[in-house]
Amino acid sequence: MQRKGFTLVELLVVIAIIGMLVGLLLPAVQQAREAARVMQCNNHLKQLGLAALNHESSVKKLPSGGWSPHWDGDPDKGLGQDQPGSWAYSMLPFLEQNALFQLGADGKFEKSPEQIQGSTDRGKTPLPFFYCPSRRPAKLYPILNDTSYSANNKYSGGEEFAKGDYAANYGNSVDVGEGVNHYSPSSISEALNYNWGADNESKNSNGTIYKHSGLKLGEVRDGTSNTYLIGEKYLEPNHYEATAANLTTNDNIYIFRGADTDMHLTTKENNRPMQDRGNVSNFHSFGSPHAGAFGMVMADGSVQRISYSVEIETHMNLGNRKDGKAVQIP
User: Model pTM?
Assistant: First the structure.
């Protein structure tokens, strides 16, 4: 009796058909995964927006952008314009991370061993809601050698700390770091008598969170639904996990430092939003690894997907809280 079975030709045909089906299915699976990551990224932005609004409800002001990249978050300086650390640091109590916010508190404006250790421990705690899931996992990454900083903790280049993939809206009037005041105050003694009224970044920025900012929602005169608050930042793909030797300017310090391009971006005319592609260096632009659009949370807490092809004038107006040119989300 003859045994029934597949011939070699039949087997090869079946394998080829399965291969074709897998090839057709794989893009759909990848698209579904990316759609899930975009949804998760939107959720992160929503959490940040709600935390900012809860901060405003409690403190009567939106989170401050902090002072300069010389400064870590300081639990003894509380919340508001006196807080030298970043907006991300100020939002920790409203993200169920008050214990992390309080690390190193000793009741004094100084850099005691307790504060230094607390700042270090906090900086080495990556939090998932500060990372875009399409870009990189929530873990520690190398930072720049900052031993020239005089006011705060000093860390050697290559040491690993938490970073972030979201940035606050500095507006469209000045770039982050523009002018001679960016690194001031640079010491505790200078901070005690610093003239904030003469600081060009603090005085001239027209965004929602910037250097030494302390805005009430009522000061967002173009409307909270028409003004950017926080969004995804552009980053070159080959710098996602860069070493200390080739860090890019907008991703070289850790997330709880004060105002710098790592944590603030502008909508000035030359800072068009971009998708993460190739080796284009643009240190002041919003953007993301997602195709088609990047995520922004508005000052009313709503999350919007903004096309990379948005008209630059519209993008500029959405970044300016008080130009009288309220625009619709495209």
Answer: 0.89
